[in-house]
Amino acid sequence: MSSTIKVCMGSSCFARGNAKNLKLIQKFIEDNNLEAEVELTGLRCCDNCSKGPNISIDDTDYNNIDQGSLLDILEKHFHKHEG
Ligand code: FES
């Protein structure tokens, strides 16, 4: 089961938090040994700046994320596959 995480790297989202969010996602992937199942890619501005910072995981879009909500999202997505 593999997933794709897309992080908007447009200047608005990047400035609003995705610079840090990206690092947090990378750390989460490393800490949980998810390298084989998660593909992490950056996106250009997806014209949704006012709702940013934006990321998507598989087909679900998440807007206005901060580091706390991001961790919740990641845990929800990636810990449900286990045990
Ligand atoms: S910079 Fe992310 S939607 Fe525009």
The residue ranges in which pLDDT falls below 50 over 5 or more consecutive positions are: none
Helix-strand sequence = EHEEEH
Say how many strands there are: 4
Quaternary structure state of the chains depicted? single chain
Protein topology:
Layout: E1 3-8, H1 11-31, E2 38-43, E3 55-57, E4 60-62, H2 67-79
Parallel strand pairs: 1-2
Antiparallel strand pairs: 1-3, 3-4
Helix pairs in contact: 1-2
Summarize the structure.
This protein is of the alpha+beta class and 83 residues long. 41% of the residues lie in helices and 22% in strands.
Question: Descriptors for this entry?
Answer:
alpha+beta, 4-stranded mixed sheet, binds FE2/S2 (inorganic) cluster, Glutaredoxin, about 80 residues
